[in-house]
Every structure is written in structure tokens, then in C-alpha cells.
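Predict structure. Input: PQQ-binding-like beta-propeller repeat protein, 714 residues.
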Amino acid sequence: MSQPPPPPNEPPKGFGAPQDPSPSSGQNPGGDPEPGGSGAPRDPLAKDSGAPQDPPTQALTPQDPPTQALTPQDPPPQGFGAPETPAPQGSGTPEAPAPQAPAPQAPAPQGFGAPQGPPPGGFGAPQDPPSGGFGPPTPPPAAAGPGYGYPQTPPPAAGPGYGYPQTPPPASPQQPYGYPQTPPPGQPGYGYPGQPQAPYGATGQQPNPYGYPQPTMPMQPQAQQTGGGRKPNSQLLIIVAAVVAIALIVGGGVMYSQLSGEGGDKHDVGKSGGVTGGDDGGDKGDDKKGGGEEKAPADPKSSLLFQLPAPAVPKGLTSVNTVGSWLTDKVYAKTGNAEINGYDPNTGAKTWTVKLPGPVCQASRHTTDANRTAVVFEPAMPTKTQPSHGCTQVAAIDLDAGAKLWTRTVKSGDQQINLDNVTISGSTVAVGSTGGGGAFDISTGKALWAPKTSDSCYDSGYGGGEKLVAVRKCGEYGSTRQLHIQTIDPKTGTVVSEYKMTPGIEYASIVSTEPLVVAADVGDTAGDGSGISDFFSIDNKTGELRAKISAPGKTYAAKCDGITKIEFCKSLAVGNDKLYIPTEEHEGTTDYSRTNEIVAFDLATGKQTGQRADAGDGYDITPLRMDGTSILAYKRPPYDKGGQIVAIDGTSFKETTLMENPTTQSTHDAEMSMLPEYAEFLYGDGRLYMAQVYANKPTSATDKAYLAIAFGTK
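Output follows.
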């Protein structure tokens, strides 16, 4: 089995370049191969015209008697192709280092006709995925065991060693590394504001101080190719996307919701918490808190609090999904195999278990003030003969009580919809997919609204947090496709404001809802699988574009997956009316070392502020979330150091070390197996939790696999 990527600053081993990580559902579909440099951003496209779509209210009906019959709406459109990952095998898929391209599965019978061949053009960007038709994404290969990160004796006169590029990523010759060229004028040409629409179905939120990153289904790390950086093999992504791309004929079916009967109480209308944009980063933070709540300890050196063993993988499967982790003042909660467990945050002792009939597919990274969250899961356990039962169930979870409050489904006609994403804003749980979605009260499970779908427009998903924002797709795949970024009222679905992106942009991700920041790959120019070529700063009150930020994938390390997981963005943070993103790794100042920086962009002007936080030789720095006006970041260490948590002052950019982890081999190995690009990172009150989103079947009896590890300074 291939080894995970080495930590920075490791001397070369001289045994060739390992393979790139296989693409995952958390990555963008294949684009062009990486360009030779960051280059200037593409010219803005012409502003386009046309009135926004009128999204009338969609009806929802309860599943359990008595039935509440509401007016049915137009049939939902289905997806127009396949995601970049091959047809997944549910929670159990082979551990091949690179995905194969099996024939796409037929969609659930919903009257939409047989799949068609791939669109003309062959190796272009994939079309929209079918409505959850492929089940959970394909899991990655397992990470390596102990010994990772410790160098062999470097050979004499060797070139760049294992995992390190032969040449560093090029920088702009005019400016220091990480500074892009000046964007061209005419930024508003990338889109224009639209007038608020009529209600089409049914804000406020305080950020979660612990900053849970958006759950995803990424791969676990494998060894990287010579060439360094953290980007996937874009050529491989192109091939996979082209092979599995299909088109579905949109058929009939009335979109409505049915509620499966499980209780719900009458309280908890508090504001939802959590980060509003990425892993790994993307927290907007509360700027009114000043420097933040996380204080530097007298001694930042941490100790290992506990390690949670990976759950057993059922017979006939190779892995199970374990996406989802949350941190409150009472409990650390983590998804296991078809269950969610609560643990004592200091000792790791299990305090409660919520059993589910099938594995969790997606989990909201937000919580309410009363520490409630939501997950999407399968109705039954996958088997070798039926690797997926579809991600059709949504449930609310009380993290303090350790209880499931209710379970609901969304239907199109008489078929349950496979749900791609779930989020929370205020007391509203919103679920979405290409086949439709809905919204429920988190306390009672009452259906609040559903988006109206038609032959031309549908909501592909939602971003939550302080506001609720929909990504609404209109038009066919290609040059006529237009994305509407709509801020909506969580309780009624009323459109508050709307921004129309330039036609031809296929996917967009919600980085933050307050302030509103959207990421997109404009014209498939990212070229690195990150899903980002530009960020859009939008006024969520007026729908007007404030600024466009060019962020070439060759230069910056943030990534988003706007295909199905609308608010899955990693390695970034939003706060102080600024966007904070890391640069790609480049050569350090010492032999064999690699390093990077965090830089800041002004959301009002779209320009860099000149602020930058250096990782230091051998370290790689990644934003985790905001803490008041400070940025919390994780420093992935070199082979002979422990990882660090630092607080970066939002004004001076001075770094304060909050935690430095042990360097003992076994502890270091466990830490290095969980990279911030793929794992779930939570930090709060002097404790750091790292968790996997998959549990893989051990390759030998001596393998040590962990579901989560925790460090603490007190």
C-alpha cells in the first residue's frame, strides 16, 4: 500500500516518486493540467441580462398520518451527468490507489428515462451529478502505519527527495510568493445583482466557538508525486469525469416532502453555531469578540489526551463512512459505523450512543445554541451485493442529551430523494440535491418549505450559519447555465437578495454566509482540482457584487467542492471583512525544507492587504477558523517536530503559539496520518481533536488505525 505524503523538511529517501492521491468526492472534477504559473486571471465576461426566476413555494406533506396534503409543485429536474468520482460503493469500496471508472449506476426509478451517452466534447468538465444516484462517495485507501515521517539516511548528491518537487511552484516575477498579479478592471462583469424574488418556500446565527469544518468524503492521504504541493492529479480527474459522465432525461414527478414519524419537542429556537465556510477553515467568526476566547496557556506543550480506535468494518466491505464531529462545552461527538457517539472531552470515555440504521453520508458542521445538529444517512447498512441504499434520511441530533430528535425524508413523486448536503441556519435544517430538497424545524421536525423545481431551475444546495444561502441553477449544462446566489429567510424560504453569476459557470461553493463569500472555478481555469479560480464578495442585503478576488490554484491552497457539497470549502477563513487563504507550498530557506504562508484579501476591494503569516521552515500552515478577530491556524510539522495551533492577530498578524504537540514517534505518526486537507479538525478551550471521515479495513493484524485523537494543554 502506498505511503502517506511526508511531512515538510524531511530529507530525501531517494526511492522514486509515489503516486498522487486518488480523487475524491471532496474534490473538483477534472480540469486542465496545472498551468506553468499562476498567470493573470481571465478577463471578466460580459454582464448578462434577464430577470431572475420566480421560485414559488413548494409544498411538503408529512409521512406519518394524519397526512397534511399541500399543493404539489412542478417536477424536479434531475442531474445532467455524473460527479467526478466513479459510482461509489456505499460505505464499502475497494482501496485501490486510484479510482476506476465503472459504468454509472442507473438512477432510482423516478420516471426519468434511461441514461444517455456523454456530452459532446469528451474531456470537458462533468455535467451535474444525478440526484444522489451514486450514494456515498468512494472512500480512499488507508493511511500508512507507524514509521511515517521518519527519514532514512539521505543519499549523497541526491536531488529533491521523496514527496518534494523538483522545482518549487513558480511565483509572479513582479511580486513575492503568494501575491497575485493585479486583477483586470471590470470586476462587475462577472455577474450582476438581481431583484429579490417572490417567496419560494421558507437568519441569524452565532458562530460556534469550536469551529467544526465542513464534513466531506475525501480520500485519506497517500504519497504524493514528485512535484509537491497538495493538489490532486487533474489529468486523472479529467479522465474519470469524462468516462462516467452521463445525461439524464428529465421526467415527470411531483416534488413534495413526506415526514417519517419520529417526535420532536417544542423548544430550541436559538441561533445556530459553527463556522460559515471551510475546514478546515471558513469561519466568519464574531468580530465583536476582539482577540477571541482562546487564550495562550502558560506552557503550550500539549499531551495526548486520548485515541479512539477505528470502528470495525463489516464483513464484505473495505471501509465505512465516519463523517461528522462536533465539540461542545460538555462533549466531543464523533460519527462511528452507523452511529454517533459522545465522549468526555478530556478522557475520551464514551458517555452516549445514538444508533442509526445505516452509515452517515453527510453531517452539518453547524449547531444551534442548544447544541443540536443534523445528519443525512442511509436507511440500512450496505452489503457486498448492495453497497448503497441511498442517502435518503435526515435526522436532528441533540448533542448534549445524546438523542435523535426526529427522522424525515424528501420525496419526488413516490420516490425518496438521495440528499447531497445538509446545513443549519437559525432553527432550520435545510437539505438539498439536484433532485430537490426541503427545510425542517430542528426541534419538531415540522416541514417549513421546499424549493420549487422546474424544467429550468432548481436549488442544488445550501450554505448555513448566520444566514441561509441557496445556490440555484438555471438553464442547461454549458454556456446557458446560470447560477443564482440567493440569500433566503430560513423560516419561510423568501428570497431576501440575489446575485446572478455569469452564464457558463457550472458550480459554486458557499464559503461564508455572513459576510457572503462564494467560490467558483470560472471557465474551468483553476486547472488543479481545487474548484477555485475566483472568490466573489457579495452584499447579501442588496445582492450586489462587492469585489472579485482572483486566486489561481497554482498559487493558493484552498479548495472547494461545489458539485454536491455546497458549503464544503477547506483551508480558508473569513473574518474582519477579509478572506484568509494559504499559499501553496514552496521551497524554504534550509535544505529539503518546504513552507507556505497565510495571506489576506480585503472583501471590499478584492485586493491583498499585505498581511501574511509565515509557517516557518518545514511547516505548512492552514487556517482553521476565526476566534473573534484572530485567525486560528494549524501548522503541520516536519518529521522531527509536533504540530502547532497558533492564533494570528487580525491586525498585526503576530502569531501566538497556543499548542505544540509531542514528538514521540507513535504520537507523531498518529498526528501525521490526519492532514487538515482531509481530516476533521476541531480546536477549543486548549484541546485539539483530529478525526477521520472513513474507517478502513486493516491491511494486517498489527495495523493501528484511529478514528480520532485528542491533544490538550491542561
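The chain has a mean pLDDT of 73.
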